[in-house]
Specification:
The protein is mainly alpha-helical. It has one domain: YggX-like (Orthogonal Bundle). It is built from 3 helices and 2 strands. It has a two-stranded antiparallel ribbon with strand order 1-2. Strand 1 and strand 2 form a beta hairpin. Helix 2 packs across helix 3. The N and C termini lie far apart (39 Å).
Length: 89
């Protein structure tokens, strides 16, 4: 049986994640308050950020940037696309 959470991103009840997807308190906050579809949307957005900004998840500064964007995207609705981003046709 799947978990149901009130997804703060989608503002509705949604299927919860199967595991804590991120370390620490932020990971627990995501697990308790974000649904699977919203997490999938974040992963797609994160991939775009990594590719467009040429980020490396191994670099501490890049990880800190991505964590800040994660909070903006999932909880603050303040995430923006990278400058110069043009979606594929």
């Amino acid at each position: 049986m799947s978990r149901t959470v009130f997804c703060q991103y989608e503002q509705r009840d949604a299927e919860g994640l199967d595991f804590v997807p991120y370390p620490g308190e932020l990971g627990q906050r995501i697990f308790n308050n974000i649904g699977k579809q919203a997490w999938a949307a974040w992963l797609a957005h994160q991939t775009m950020l990594i590719n467009e900004n040429r980020l490396s998840p191994r670099t501490p500064e890049h990880r800190a940037f991505l964590e800040g964007e994660l909070v903006k995207f999932l909880f603050e609705k303040d995430a923006q696309k990278p400058a110069g981003f043009t979606p594929e046709a």
